[in-house]
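Team,

Forwarding the record for the chain on the shared tracking sheet. I've put the sequence and predicted structure together so nobody has to dig through attachments.
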Amino acid sequence: MKFRPALLLLLAFTATCAFAQSAADLGAGKARKAATWPLTSTPEEAQAAQLSARFLTRFHYDAQPLDDAMSARIYKAYFKLLDSEKVFFTQADMAKFAPLKTQLDDAIWNQDLSAPFAVFNLYVQRAVERMNYARGLLKQGFDLAVDESYTFDREHADWPKDQAELNDLWRKRTKNDWLRLKLAGKDDAEVRKTLDKRYANYIERVRQLDGQDAFQAFMTAYAETTDPHTDYLGPRAAENFDIAMKLSLEGIGAVLQPRDDYTQIRELVPAGPAAKSGRIEVGDRIVGVGQGDNGPIVDVIGWRLDDVVNLIRGKKDTTVRLEVIPADVGVDGKHEMVSLVRKRVSIEEQAAKKKIVEIKDGEATRKIGVIELPTFYSDFGARNAGDKDFKSATRDVARLLGELKHEGVQGVVMDLRNNGGGSLAEANTLTGLFIDKGPVVQVRDSKGGVEVQGDDDPGMAWSGPLAVLVNRGTASASEIFSAAIQDYHRGLIIGEPTFGKGTVQNLVDLDRFAQGDSEKPQLGELKMTIQEFFRINGGSTQLKGVTPDIAFPKNGDDKDFGESTYDNALKWTQIAPAGYQVVANLAAYLPQLQQKHAERVAHSPAWKLMLDELAQYRSMRAKTSVSLNFATREVERKQLEAIQADFRARHKAIDGSDASLADEASSLDDGLNANERSLKSELKQEKDAKKAKDVQLNETAHILFDAIGLIKANPQLAAEVLPYGGKFSPHALASLPAAAASSVAH
């Protein structure tokens, strides 16, 4: 089932890992000061809001005035961001704030953010009140024999009309938490202890919210009201965005997560300072941080994660000292002091990776290379500074293609599933690895001017058979690449229809336009939509995405995930096509590939299992309410247990793993939140999931196997379906492995 906590809290306090490192200058290494209530905005934040408005109303691709009409949309977005499920505010609260519908534009223009901050302050107050109310309910327990239900999906519900209705909503919400733990086998005392601790921790984290959080929430509401992909990035968010783009940072090389009152080591980056020290282990808890060789140790027990990260972050070759409780001792165990020198660390988890899949069909066996690319990354700073070794998705993929050639693969699959995009320039250059030369994308600005961008360098890093695997999470730069490959008929697009994002954003450093004498105003950055991109055939990926040549089953997420789910998304349009020539005729062999695919999956136990799991996943996602009767839920749990046992048994028979593709939807609920489980069990679950057979990737490789077989068996067909009529540039041909070169020659 899906629970939707207030987005702000999800962003501020999710247990998702964070790298404890960056290139930030810490100075004395102090954390942010404790918040003073009620929260108020700073002059810098008020200036950042006004500056953002000036840019958005003048330079946005679809510039709209910041007036009363926009104010009403910001109002709606702000309350949805804070309380999307309508579980904190009442109709009386909303009536109190109703005048703000036409006043938020004035608040921004006049640099007076007292109104949106007043909303945020009440939100925090209500959140604490609700958690305290839930804690009070735990003392008396619940009658689990009553026939009643709890509607947990309240996105389209009305605000509770009064305090009594809100209390009843929270009674059911808390009762459901209680019931989940009871169904998992815990007695009343264990349930009461677990939930009281959960709600107390929630209160503590809510109280740690500060003015930066309030401002970030309000500015997010404003920015995303203009279009779904415009966003305001506060100083912290801007720094994290920069790290994500360049895939490198300066620090200790550890991934952290909050657990109870502690900051825990969740993962060590190979070859990073923490891993190389031999004194830091996964599961260690950080209780103190000191700067340099002799700086005082700051006690960080109970701190929010980003404050701890701020202390651990620092410049390359500087020293940080960590006071840790080792993973294998209790909280009262002996503390250890570890001194680490910060270094430049590469985040290889998000970098391009390769592997080889061997496909056997009858007596034929072929090696298919797979390159998984999670994002289109590029270290802009290093590139602009002339660093010849700057981090780049294109450079990494080119290197991996060279290695795959050397290993004798006969086809390549680019796996772009869940690749949300990144650098537009990288999308261009990466496409250039697979085409001789020519246009890749057309970009239109707000004035209607169209620029054709593409690859001007002749030759290809890979000129053999190609497939691109996509899904609903394939977006933006990934769609540019996929669309170009499809328009050129350079390779097969396989999978689900993509996200449908067809806009280009640019980063505006607001500090460059700050007023006043401050040397470090720290106004943040504005990620603003400035252009729309179009395929070289003149169509757009906006809303429609890229439609695969060979479609795989949808998982159902398209109903609430994708560009078409945004009510303020730009409309689909088209322009004149660019001047380009298709390099092959995929239509000549698509029907045969479709037929082979259909026949194969019809007899595939793994494919049938995937379909059954997807059906179960969709069924669970469709639920919006649950019974609060123990007997009813126990029957449902037993039914789910039987389904899940069947899935596990089938997985075991197929690939020897216990993992299920539908674990989120169909695994038995233990009643715990993610950070309430042991780290050991979390890591084991992730490891087991990785062992599961990737059915879609394997089938994609098999489709490419079929394509290679058709080409080899029919020289006349090869002249039609191979790029450039089966003729390659001398450079590309010389770089092909023997097996691939042979298939081209025949």
